[in-house]
Amino acid sequence: MSQLIHLENCFSTNDEIITLINDDESTAVFTFNQLKGRGQYGNIWKVNPNQNLAYSLAVRNDKINITDISLNYYTAIIVRDFLDNLTKSQVKIKWPNDIILNGKKVCGILIEKKKVNNQEYYILGIGINVLQEDYSQLPKAGSVYTATGLIFDLQEFALDFHHAMISKLDTNISEEEILAQYNRFLFRKNEICVFQKNNVRQNGIIKNADENGFLWIDLENEGLQKFFHKEIEMFY
To answer: Does the pLDDT value for residue 128 go beyond 50?
Structure first.
């Protein structure tokens, strides 16, 4: 069982959910008007009101039997699969957990650990751009609408997405299969791309992501190396 709560607006669904958690079941909140959403490593997730989905799901740590890295990968896979089934378009995962739809970033994921009433929880925060049209200041970003031309009812979109999250998290899946699926849908894998490391640009080829959260890239000047988030930038 799970409870789903719709908020007319809030600063951050990841913060708001802390006061609404039900100890007996998974709790999720969503809004179409998030005022101060957060992304990875302190980034700000800015969206227009009533055009996009901000969603957070709180799950007890003892209900999750995979590592933090695997949970991060698996959450990205769930979102990817949902958008793939919904749009019938090309959906990839840009390491570590951005979702790329037809070449545009339409989703960001922030997973946090919080203690509530002496119980540890994972807070899965997910922002999906659904209907927003203007990305003139963010050339890499887009929405489901700008990337596909498809228009969805936000309320139905949120309910369908919640059901997908709950059903997939209740599925038993091995960490080996998670890693295999993640690499299967890894954005720009085995393609020549331009990377920037220490302000120096060079070509490279993404080989794979590993079970420890590192991305392995074969760089033209330095050979095969592994990187953690923010240690290297890919241009696309």
So the answer is: yes
